[in-house]
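hey m, so remember when u said the tokens were messed up on ur end? i reran from scratch. heres the input so u can diff it against urs
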Amino acid sequence: MILRFTRRHVLQALTSLGALSASGRAKPTSAAGNASDPAPLSSGPLLPAQAGGLPADQSKRWKGSELGNLYPFIKEEQQRTRQSLAFLNRRPKDLVAWKAECREKVFAALVYRPVPSQPDATIVERVDRGDYIRERLTFHTAPNVTVPAYLLVPKRAKLPAPAVIALHDHSGIYYWGKEKIIETEKEHSVLIASRQRHYDGVSYPAMLARHGYVVLTIDMYYFGDRRLILDEDLERGINDHSKVESEETIGQINDRNGKAEHVIYKNMIDAGITWAGVLAWDDIRSIDYLVTRPEVDARRIACTGLSVGGFRTNFLAGLDPRIKASCVAGWMTSFRSLLPRYESYTVPAGWPSGLLDDLDYPDVGSLTLPNPMMVVHGWQDTLFPPEGVRAAFNALAKCYDAIGKPERFQTFTFDGPHKFPLEAQQRMMAWFDRWV
């Protein structure tokens, strides 16, 4: 029996805590391996698709919410939140002091601040790609945390050059991380299909490198070389990074990791940390590594990403003043608009508990003021309620208007799904050319 593993299955499997904007259609996976493949990874049956991503049904008692009879209590508590530190509520006269106060609140909610460490980078491989050099490397973001990365260095740019931190997507594909957006040799068909679906087949980091930017991208926690590996995988000789698995096994790994995502999240909470905290810390420490490179102009660093990459971009730009411009693709909404009907689609497992009373999601992005921000959104993106997207756009635009710099906030919308299309990528590059 062949089960077709769709975006809805990915998102449903992550429970009501939700994924960080998983999207796209994965390749079919099989319930039983071929004779030449290892036995299937252990996993339960795929659950039926949820109704998330549809307008609330006002004729129903609980609006069609997946939270059912628990919806009124949770929604009421959500609506009690005040966003008391938001720029538009606080109207601060001292922008620097306001940002310092807000950032401290965000870092406290993220509850992950390990002892800082030197990057202590190791370059594993250098490949000449014609217009740029691609380095595969590792560096430390904490004393016992090693992060795999790619660095692209343009060959024809005047050095030191401006830099971009490129943050990869979720897409329900855990087997790869940074490779989803970086050009590599002999790419797997699943990887090629994913890039076509989400980026019009383009490696935008390569495009930026050819244009003269140094580009860094890392594997975010739980993806790529940092994905979930179990003892049973080692015993069976699979999922150990020493080889590329078959399409079927990759599908099974993605399936299992999707179903385990909420388990990992809950255990991180129990351990006293948050997923969002780990992501934000690793991304900030990525800047620490970038500024050690002589090829990089430390005064000219930008960041961008799609989906969970957009989520990370919003936090990185808001929390680190070294980011001089940003482009958030496919992840901008007010959290107050998500319930009902988006419980399992968009609410990220990594949202810091309690932060909504101080700041909404776009408020975190507003901490980048007065640095420029661009937001990309497709109106057919079913991960976000249109009213939530418009509310976020409106709030951010008002923030930039209030400081007298409306030209530093720009939106690019298109009539399409959850993706970072080529035209948006080109506009992002022009945005960075203007501001970085």
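this time it looks ok to me. Residues 247-270 form the longest helix (24 residues). if urs says something different then somethings off w ur setup not the seq
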